[in-house]
Amino acid sequence: MISSLRGQVLSIGLDHVVVEVGGVGYAVQATPATLATLRRGEETHLATSLVVREDSLTLFGFADTEARELFGLLQTVSGIGPRLALATLAVLEPDKLRAALAEGNITVLTQVPGIGRKGAERLIIELRDKVGALAPAPSATGDTGQVRAQVTEALLGLGFPAKQAEQAVDAVLAADGALGTSEVLRRSLATLGRKR
Prior knowledge:
Elements: E1 4-12, E2 16-21, E3 24-29, H1 32-36, E4 43-53, E5 56-62, H2 65-74, H3 82-91, H4 94-103, H5 106-109, H6 117-127, H7 144-157, H8 162-175, H9 181-191
Parallel strand pairs: 3-5
Antiparallel strand pairs: 1-2, 1-4, 2-3, 4-5
Helix pairs in contact: 2-3, 4-6, 7-8, 7-9, 8-9
GO molecular function: ATP binding; four-way junction DNA binding; four-way junction helicase activity
Protein name: Holliday junction branch migration complex subunit RuvA
InterPro entries: DNA_helicase_Holl-junc_RuvA_I, Hlx-hairpin-Hlx_DNA-bd_motif, NA-bd_OB-fold, RuvA, RuvA_2-like, RuvA_C, RuvA_C_sf
């Protein structure tokens, strides 16, 4: 099992990144929010999950172990494979996903392409009691300053001018300072008129 990768980012695609570790380039499937935090030529560290099929070995990468654990948990539900699990994490950041499962919020879960009402109900029934075990400690959400720095750096990596990036991030955090990094990034990109 490959549980993490640390190495240089060789290239970034729409749905994957290639990370060179010890002279070998690993293609890692990831969400747009995770890919937006990476820069070509820089070192990265990704929590990973290796999915083995008869005809393929596929690596899925995440910014943190919390997202990786949710990815694995989602696949324990009948009808949820790795692609749909990754799509779920692309649409719903971990905190929002856990809350939707714990509260039985079908409307939020059906925002994910490929998950209908029955699928959402199945997710809630099977995972409601399990998501509490994955809840991070209160300090894991990070303070606003750290979130601001991470998102601003990601926007600079995407080519936005520093002033525009900082203003977009500040506007999002002023509206809701309790948001996680990936949601602040998503809203900042929307503010800047460039959705991934």
